[in-house]
Amino acid sequence: MKQWFLEWALRQKQKKMVVGADYNVETYLNKIVEYFDPSIAGDRKLTVVYEFHDSGANDGAWTVAIDDARCTLSRGEAEQFDSKFYMTAETYRRILTGRLDFSKLTYSTGAIRFFGNTLAQIELNTYLKLPKNAGIAGL
To answer: How far is the C-alpha of 102 from the C-alpha of 59, rounded, in Å?
Structure first.
């Protein structure tokens, strides 16, 4: 019961949060492609879907696909995926800025719902080389 209440309370708060007009999740999702290092990924195949809800113009799904040492981002949800993450754009912004620890807090509070392999996000991040001056904590 306590867990249910925490998740409900978080959803209520998230629905009331306003994401600024200048914030666009696609801009940051494109950084996954930009910071992708094919030498680390090798011949690994991985598909991760990000779906945003209750976020106005940022609503929708995007698919990050790694195949043949290439990383692509496309609008829409892939039929087959390793992992799918369902969250608000504000939750994603908090992850980007380091105000929300993806691995420790997001699942236990219900800020992110996932389908499939939860380790796919960790694996995806191992294929990225974030520059020190990237201005973001993670993708």
So the answer is: 20
Residues 46, 40 contacting (CB under 8 angstroms): no
- Strand-strand pairing, 113-116 and 46-52: unpaired
Beta strands, E only, the chain = 46-52, 60-67, 70-75, 83-87, 113-116
CATH code for the part of the protein at 2-16+23-126: 3.30.1050.10
What is the Cα–Cα distance from 41 to 93, expressed in whole angstroms?
26
| pLDDT digits 0-9 by tens, 29-77 | 998 999 999 999 988 999 999 999 887 888 899 999 999 999 999 999 9
Domain boundaries, the chain: 2-16+23-126
SS3 (DSSP) at 76: coil
Dump pLDDT digits (tens) for 83-111.
998 988 888 888 777 777 666 656 666 77
Instruction: Look up residue 39 and give its two tokens.
Output: 């030498």
